[in-house]
Amino acid sequence: MGYKNEDEIKRALGIESWRHLSKEKMIRFVAMMPDMSTEVALKIIEQFPAFKDFAKDVVGVMEKAYESTLSNNKQSQEHFHRACQEVREILRVELNKDNLSREDKKFIIEQIQETLRMEFQKDSENKQFLSGNLKRVLAGAGAALALGVVFVGGKVFAESKDDPEGSLEA
Question: Between vectors from CA 132 to CA 128 and to CA 138, what angle results, nearest 5°?
Answer without folding.
Answer: 145
